[in-house]
Design goal:
The complex is a heterodimer of chains A (244) and B (693). Helix content of chain A is 26%, strand content 22%. Chain A is α+β, with helices and mostly antiparallel strands and 244 residues long. Chain B contains 32 helices and six strands.
């Protein structure tokens, strides 16, 4: 009888182990060898990427002491809404006081707040908040159209491949990050300006009419992109911070 | 103990009435389990939560009206979709719920498809028929396809859309990488439309490699291709020193001299760095070739190989012969035959040979190869499938060298081998396999690539789209890709165009590169005299472009041959060159055109016509009257995209009068003087400098 119980127990145990698929993920947190007083951004804030994808540039933060000099060996931990992943999620500052991490945004479109934190000498948490922007399908399409048609005039920055036309225009166009102005213009008015050109709203004729070149859904996509990257954020389009 | 049990039995089942009562009771309770389970089910919990959430909203009445309780289902038999996701994701269709961030109540972000036509699992995967969260989202014993992580979601677009889409950059990039990085040399990818994916890189033939370079370089290159050129697409096979020694021995011993390649050259490489740099610049080598500058940045294009250390690689004689006529060594090369004279070959080869890195070969010392080493090298070359990519004399291109990937996106998880610590999902398997192919076992042959994490995600996305669904799709749903045409120009001019590698940059009739303008209708577009002058001295038409067409030192006969061919063959049927004259428009029309140009249409925002204009986007128009035909300008004003699909000039839907007046005004812009076209090229020089700022 007991033999039977033993056999049943072994079978059950085997089944249980073969069914469990959880892979143990142990987070190894290194031990801080030094403490700073402040944490500042070196680079990587305000980037734009597609939902779920890697930011084009890594996020780099720096830990400083009271006098503003870099601290090596301080522990920095990154956190954000669920769905955002960091590679690595924590690390000790290098000789120049910096920690670099690659960030993948979550699956929801919107803004993500990324928190980099370190402990100071009295073990109090010091935080730095960065903002990154995730684009959904429609905004990604809008970004593509922006790169093709709009950016040459509306983006004052030049790149190697694209010389900006911004400085050449007598009436300056609004960069799409200019939320203070653009957030006040409703979707209907933006649509009118894009479809019929600047004069539709008594603005400059240097802004041509795109209504015969871009489809209605193209223009919607463009507006959704403009709303997504505006700074300060546009509130009409939904919650400012995405959660998963 | 026994008495107790007996008395209990007696109490419950002592007589038939008692037994009947008790059995009925047990039966009733067991029947009640099902409704209770249903009442406490997960989806009901979420639906209650949804109703609680909408109660306090201003649009509660509308939302309440739209709400349907109970299990919801989207059933699409031809797609094999039974999706009950909307039972919990109640607000998916509600446009007003964009401000809700709690799941499962968020509205679906805007996409071009309707939920009721495609369901959910077609794009998101997961188990559609499930009614609990864990069964729907995760893989279970009976269902191994979990929800697709958001970063790979574009792979689902690729199941139906076989060409590139503006809204799916990651999928497009992944598909490009599959052919650009040469994955499909070894892995066959049969696309759902019946075609086989073709590689888009051009690995050089190794049959004459000893003409080009020395064995030491081959050894160092095999050991670490990226040490020679960081942009190299050749992967690292992680060969041991002995293996690299033997492979290099075989390749050099196997090489035969290329006829015509060893022609004696009168010129010696001359070291005049200033003249070399200026010839390198004038010839626009950087449009295709990159060189790493002192700051570590790559400067130049990626059509040809990187030249940072080219002096450590090539033999001077080979380089000079190559510069003289690259087609003598490689008939299919993308490099144009420049027609450099002896002096230019000497200057340019001297300049390129100085781009050497003495450290690169410093530690490579190879003894003369033994026959055993050569034989072993040959075996290694076959084993590693080198001939899948490179042409190697005496070695046949292996068939199906690596596993076929035509349906990799549906590969059962049970057939996969995972590394410890890895998530047991197909996307993770593919991504890790691309990232570190040799980690999966001893003796694996797939080499190590140097992909960035973003490139790995793109490749994984493209591979996931090659699945069962994409191959079994109802034909009505498939959106076909436009394949590159195999257009080839005919006759003498056609041969000349191949020799000049026009198609490396220009596109004609759906074939060719995208670096330079599409020339499909060039014959309708430009005036003959302008084209002749342009061939003799190409200038840039766009002030903001760094690249421009190089000068090929063509003879008058060659120029005429090309011009005649272009003017006769590349004609658009909708543009009748004779329909509108090149001069003789009334002053009134010209004046009206000028007003429209600067006023209503504000063309100066993008174009330069007068010195005061600054537009940087479109071509300079100061000499447009001696460049374009009037009929082309008119048609362009009416609808630019009809002549060049995808051009960024907006279609202004002009009236016939406006278009005619603008044509009259533009055609009057001859740039002054009779030899205006020649001047046009010269006058463009100052704007070049602006572009380089």
């Amino acid at each position: 009888m007991t033999r039977h119980y033993q056999a049943i127990f072994i079978v059950v145990a085997l089944l249980a182990t073969s069914c469990s698929r959880t892979v143990g993920v142990s987070v190894i947190v290194p031990k801080a060898t030094a403490f700073g007083a402040a944490i500042v951004e070196s680079s990587g804030g305000k980037q734009v990427a597609q939902t779920g994808s890697l930011l084009p540039q890594p996020v780099v933060v720096q830990v400083n002491d009271e006098r503003g000099t870099a601290v090596a060996g301080a522990l920095v931990e990154f956190s954000a809404a669920p769905g955002v992943t960091f590679d690595p999620p924590n690390g000790l500052t290098d000789s120049s006081g910096q920690v670099t991490t690659n960030v993948s945004l979550g699956g929801m479109a919107g803004r993500y707040e990324i928190v980099a934190s370190t402990a100071d000498k009295s073990h109090k948490k010091v935080e730095l908040k960065l903002e990154e922007i995730a684009l959904g399908y429609q905004q990604t399409l809008g970004r593509h159209l922006n790169d093709l048609y709009c950016e040459r005039c509306h983006n004052p920055e030049s790149t190697v491949e694209r010389v900006s036309n911004f400085d050449n225009l007598e009436v300056k166009p609004h960069p799409f990050t200019e939320g203070d102005t653009l957030n006040k213009i409703g979707d209907a008015d933006l649509t009118a300006i894009i479809s019929h050109g600047g004069p539709a709203l008594n603005k400059s004729a240097l802004m041509p009419a795109w209504g015969n070149t871009l489809s209605k859904s193209d223009i919607q996509a463009l507006i959704s992109y403009i709303r997504a990257v505006s700074d300060p954020p546009s509130r009409s389009a939904g919650p400012v911070y995405a959660k998963n | 103990m026994k008495e107790k049990l007996t008395s209990l039995w007696q109490k419950l089942f002592g007589d038939s009435v008692r037994a009947f009562g008790v059995v009925s009771l047990i039966f009733l309770v067991s029947l009640a389990i099902a409704p209770a389970k249903n009442f406490f089910s997960e989806w009901r919990h979420y639906q209650h939560g949804y109703l609680r959430m909408i109660r306090n909203r201003s649009d509660a009445n509308t939302l309440q009206r739209h709400f349907q309780g109970g299990i919801q289902q989207i059933w699409l038999p031809e797609l094999g979709v039974v999706d009950r996701c909307t039972s919990c994701h109640v607000g998916l269709r509600e446009a007003s719920l964009t401000d809700v961030s709690t799941q499962p109540f968020r509205t679906h972000p805007a996409i071009p498809h309707k939920l009721d036509q495609f369901g959910c699992t077609v794009c998101h995967r997961g188990q559609g028929a499930a009614t609990t969260l864990s069964e729907a989202h995760n893989s279970t014993l009976a269902w191994e396809q979990p929800i697709l992580p958001a970063k790979y979601i574009e792979s689902s677009c690729g199941e139906c859309h076989r060409g590139s889409l503006p809204g799916t950059p990651q999928l497009n990039q992944g598909r490009n990488l599959l052919s650009r990085e040469g994955c499909v040399h070894c892995h066959t990818v049969k696309l759902p439309d019946g075609t086989t994916m073709k590689a888009d890189d051009d690995p050089p033939s190794l049959s004459h490699i000893a003409d080009k370079t020395a064995r030491e370089w081959v050894f160092a290159w095999l050991k670490d291709p990226q040490a020679y050129a960081s942009t190299s697409t050749m992967p690292n096979f992680k060969l041991s020193d002995d293996d690299a020694r033997d492979v290099s021995a075989f390749l050099i011993a196997n090489s035969t001299p290329q006829a015509g390649d060893t022609a004696a050259l009168s010129a010696k490489a001359s070291s005049d760095p200033a003249a070399g740099a200026s010839l390198y610049g004038e010839s626009f080598c950087a449009s295709c070739h990159a060189v790493q500058n002192a700051a570590g940045n790559m400067v130049g294009g990626d059509v040809g190989p990187e030249l940072t250390r080219v002096g450590s690689k090539v033999k001077p004689g080979w380089l000079q012969a190559w510069l003289r006529n690259p087609r003598a060594y490689d008939t299919g090369t993308a490099m144009p035959h420049y027609r450099f004279n002896d002096g230019q070959v000497a200057t340019l080869s001297g300049f390129l040979l100085a781009k050497a890195d003495s450290d690169f070969l410093a530690n490579v010392h190879l003894e003369a190869a033994t026959p055993e080493q050569i034989a072993h090298g040959k075996r290694l070359v076959s084993d590693y499938g080198c001939a899948s990519c490179h042409e190697i004399a005496g070695i046949k291109k292996p068939e199906n060298f690596a596993p076929e990937l035509s349906r990799i996106g549906s590969k059962p998880v049970t057939q996969l081998v995972f590394l410890p610590g890895m998530q047991h999902t197909l996307p993770d398997y593919i991504a890790t396999k691309i990232k570190q192919p040799r980690a999966f076992g001893q003796g694996l042959k797939m080499p190590q690539y140097t992909f960035t994490p973003a490139q790995i995600d793109s490749l994984t996305t493209a591979l996931l789209s090659l699945n069962d669904r994409s191959n079994t799709l109802p034909p009505s749903l498939a959106v076909a890709a436009t394949h590159e045409s195999d257009y080839q120009p005919a006759g003498k001019a056609g041969k000349l165009m191949t020799d000049l590698a026009c198609f490396s940059c220009h596109r004609i009739n759906g074939h060719g590169g995208d670096m330079a303008p599409d020339l499909t209708w060039e014959g309708s577009s430009v005036q003959r005299e302008w084209l002749v002058q342009f061939f003799k001295n190409p200038g840039t038409l766009r002030p903001s472009l760094i690249r421009r067409m190089p000068r090929f030192n063509l003879t008058d006969g060659e120029v005429n041959e090309l011009t005649d061919y272009i003017m006769t063959v590349y004609q658009n049927p909708a543009v009748d060159r004779e329909s509108m004259p090149l001069s003789g428009y009334s002053q009134g029309e010209v004046e009206l055109g000028k007003q429209l140009f600067y006023g209503k249409y504000s063309c100066q925002g993008c174009h330069i016509l007068d010195k005061a204009d600054k537009g940087y986007i479109g071509p300079t128009l100061t000499h447009v009257g001696s460049r374009l035909t009037a009929a082309w300008i008119y048609q362009w004003m009416k609808n630019p995209q009809s002549l060049r699909p995808g051009t960024i000039e907006p279609n202004r839907a002009m009236s016939d009068e406006d278009a005619r007046a603008l044509t009259a005004f533009l055609i009057s812009q001859k740039g002054g003087g009779k030899s205006s076209a020649a001047k046009a090229a010269r006058n463009d020089a100052p704007t070049q400098e602006v572009a380089k700022r």
